[in-house]
Design brief:
The protein is an alpha/beta fold and about 270 residues long. The chain folds into 2 domains: about 70 residues, 434 Repressor (Amino-terminal Domain); about 190 residues, 2-Layer Sandwich (Endonuclease, Chain A), CATH 3.30.870. It is built from 12 helices and 6 strands. A 6-stranded mixed beta sheet has the order 3-2-1-4-5-6, with helices on both faces. Helix 1 crosses helix 3 and helix 7 crosses helix 8. The model has no long low-confidence stretch (mean pLDDT about 90). It comes from Streptomyces violaceusniger (strain Tu 4113).
Length: about 270
């Protein structure tokens, strides 16, 4: 059976419906943009699922297309808890059959403890309200519910040694975080490998990456930087990311040696509290 493209997210289905309704109304993107009071490029983003319209934009879309509140009502179910650049990747996480995580400087979000996530998010927001920080921590930790099933998705976790050494949140938070990852690895929930400092440069030294595979769809790769992220589904780009991951994995310690290393460093953090 030929493999389809990656699964469509709810946002992309919304955008496709918008495109079909616009065509049925015999309107161009330019014509619709004039009615919605936005740029044609923004209409293109809506139709591709890259952006969601604001409620007032959706109301004008309904008025322009005569869809009787359809796009406003559907929009209420699509508002993401996450930043726009991550929203589609967050949806795809829930559909993946296998994930390969690489942490360059931080423990991947799916594996973070509450305290570690709070330290990361508060450091990125010097002026924040406690309720907003609480909400973001809960959103991040809730993503890990996809790991409640002990068998799916299959999870590989590759960490740069810098992740283990950087004392995010202080020694107690780090010890707790590293032990959580080690416990998951020891229980068989994830496969753990560490790329040690001694290797020097390696294939993933420039960026974090998450690789996602699906049962009946093509794989994707997601990379993220400061206030931005990029989801790749172009086969050549995804294949290149997979090759880089494999190269870095070849430089990593074995599962057992990585487990021993992460527990030893957790002890170092714990010891340094006193």
């Amino acid at each position: 059976m030929q493999m389809d493209r990656r699964p469509r997210t709810a946002r992309e289905k919304y955008g496709e419906e918008l495109r079909l309704r616009r065509i049925a109304a015999e309107m161009t993107q330019e014509a619709l943009s004039e009615r919605v009071v936005c740029s044609p490029t923004l209409i293109s983003h809506f139709e591709a699922g890259r952006r969601l319209p604001r409620p007032d934009d959706a109301a004008r879309i309904d008025q322009a297309l005569g869809t009787d509140g359809f796009f406003v009502r559907w929009l209420e179910d699509l508002e993401s808890k996450f930043a726009d650049h991550f929203a589609v990747a967050a949806e795809l996480e829930r559909q993946t059959s296998e994930m390969r995580l690489y942490g360059l400087s931080l423990v991947p979000g799916l594996l973070q403890t509450d305290a570690y996530a709070r330290a990361v998010l508060s450091a990125a927001s010097p002026n924040y309200r406690s309720e907003d920080l609480d909400r973001r921590v809960v959103n991040r930790v809730e993503r890990a519910r996809i790991l409640d099933n002990p068998l799916s998705p299959v999870v590989w976790t590759l960490l740069d040694e810098a992740v283990l050494r950087r004392r995010v949140g202080g020694p107690h938070v780090m010890a707790e975080q590293l032990r959580k990852v080690a416990d998951m690895a020891e229980a068989g929930r994830l496969r753990l490998h560490v790329v040690p400092f001694g290797i020097g440069a390696h294939a993933l030294i420039e960026s974090m990456v998450t690789l996602m595979n699906f049962t009946d769809a093509a794989p994707v790769a997601y990379v993220e930087g400061l206030r931005t992220g990029h989801l790749m589904d172009d086969p050549a780009l995804v294949s290149s990311c997979q090759s880089a991951y494999d190269l870095a994995m070849g430089d990593a310690e074995s599962h057992q040696d990585s487990l021993a290393l992460i527990r030893a460093i957790a002890e170092e953090h714990e010891h340094d509290q006193h």
